[in-house]
User: What shape does this take?
Amino acid sequence: MGVKVRKRNGKWYVVIDYHGRRKSKCVGTREAAEHVKREIEARLALGEVGVLTEPEKSETFTEYSQRWIKSHVALHLKPSTQDSYRSLLDSRLIPKFGRLPLRDVTRNKVKAYLAEMVESGKVRKHTIRNVIACLRAMMQHAVEDGIVEVNPAIGLGRFNRPQ
Assistant: This one.
């Protein structure tokens, strides 16, 4: 096992050799490369070999929302709820989060978006409540599907009440 810092063509790389597998990553400055090296050594010492695998392509918010509509909403909810969720996704949530990988939709990003809606004064409190409900339901299914670990929309209604 070895983790080394190398400079090649003016760029700093961290090179990992672990049980016959090799991977290198361009890091930036020497200080950043040394910091990454220490972190990787600690993770490898604990037996975490995930640093050697490429992260799998994450499903975007738009892709997952479309799959969720087909696999759950269309099968289990009333037609009026289906229409409401589709409308909220198309008009509010997909324009804001659509391109993000689903894993990157964090509680802070959701809270910031809700704060934007409240501050604009153009969005009624019932609309905000419905946006939260739709997002919470969709993200709970993402938790159950193992895509995200925590639902970022749980309990947000209490914190984003318009005055």
